[in-house]
Amino acid sequence: LTITTVTLATGIWLEVSLRRVAVLGDDPARPAPGSGTNWLLVGSDGRSDLSPEQQAELSTGGDLGSSRTDTILLVHVPALLSTEPTALVSIPRDSYLEIPGWGMDKVNAAFAAGGAPLLTQTVEQATGLRIDHYAEVGFGGFGAVVDALGGVRICLPEPLNDPLAGVDLPAGCQAVDGRNALGYVRSRDTPRADLDRMQHQREFMAALLERIGSPAVWLNPWRWYAVPHAVVGALSVDEGAHVWDLARLAWALHGGATTLTVPIGEFTGNASGAVVVWDIDAADALFGALRTDAPIPQLVL
C-alpha cells in the first residue's frame, strides 16, 4: 500500500468513526458569525469510562459525580486571506461568568450542570464570539493518544513533583508518556498555580501537534493504526465537524500561534469559592479583535 492510499483510507475511516455529539444549537440569540473559525477545546475530568485500576494509574481520584472541565481553550483560526496568526486563548475554569438559566457561577459549573451545550452557550455569551466547532477529550483518551504517539517531548525549567497529579519529572527536556503528560497538564503545584497550569496546557498542545506531524511518527507503520484509533477513542466533536476541519485546526496550530490567557482583573472569593474575574475592558478588546481578524491589542498581549 502506498502512503497516499493509507492516508486516504485512514481519513475516510476517521470521518465515519468520529464520535459526534449535539452541542451547537440554532438559538437565534447566538452571536452572529464573525471572521475566521472559532473552536472550543475542552479537556474534561470525566472518568466513568476508566476502571478503578486506570484511575489509580492516572491519579485521577475516584469522584464519579458530575464531570467538570480541566481545560478550556478557545482557538481562533483566522480566515484564509488574513495575515493574523491563529490565537490560542486559555479560559480559566474558575472564571466567574453568567451561566444562562443558572445565574453567576464558575464557568466550570456550566459544564457540570448542562454539559457541552451549556458550556458553549456560556462562552458564547461571555465572549460575543460564535463557536463554530467543539472538541472534547477525557482523562483516559488524552493519555491513550500520547502513548499511541510514542510519547511527547516537553522541556521543564524546574523539576515538577506533584503527588496529587501523579507526576514527578526532573528538570530538562524529556519525552513523557500518557500518565506523566496528564499529570503535567493537570498540576497546579507551581508558584503561579492555575496560571502556570494553563501555560503548560498551551505548550503541551503545541508539542502534541508537533509530534503528530513528525515524520518519525508516520514512518512507523504501527502508528498508522494506533494513532487514529486512539484519537477516535479519545475525541468527541460537534455534529458539524469533519475530519478535514480537524486537519485544518491541527495545521493552524502546528504552524505556531499567539498564546494567551483571557485578561484577568482580579482573583477573589464569594459563595462560589475562589473565582477569577475578567478584566472586562481588556477582554472585550481581545474578543473584538478576534471577531474581525484584527491584530490583538498590545494591552492584551
Keywords:
single chain, 301 residues, alpha+beta, seven-stranded mixed sheet, two-stranded antiparallel ribbon, 15 strands
In short:
The chain is an alpha+beta fold and 301 residues long.
Can you give a write-up of this model?
The structure is a single chain. The protein is of the alpha+beta class. Helices cover 41% and strands 25% of the residues. The protein has helices spanning 3-17, 52-58, 107-127, 139-148, 178-186, 194-212, 215-218, 221-234, 243-254, 280-292, and strands at 19-21, 37-44, 69-77, 86-90, 96-99, 103-106, 133-137, 152-156, 160-162, 167-169, 172-176, 235-238, 257-261, 264-270, 273-278.
Q: Which helices and strands appear, and what pairs or packs with what?
A:
Elements (H helix, E strand, L loop, with lengths): L2 H15 L1 E3 L15 E8 L7 H7 L10 E9 L8 E5 L5 E4 L3 E4 H21 L5 E5 L1 H10 L3 E5 L3 E3 L4 E3 L2 E5 L1 H9 L7 H19 L2 H4 L2 H14 E4 L4 H12 L2 E5 L2 E7 L2 E6 L1 H13 L9
Parallel strand pairs: 1-12, 2-7, 4-13
Antiparallel strand pairs: 2-3, 3-4, 5-6, 7-12, 8-11, 9-10, 14-15
Helix pairs in contact: 1-8, 4-5, 4-8, 5-6, 6-9
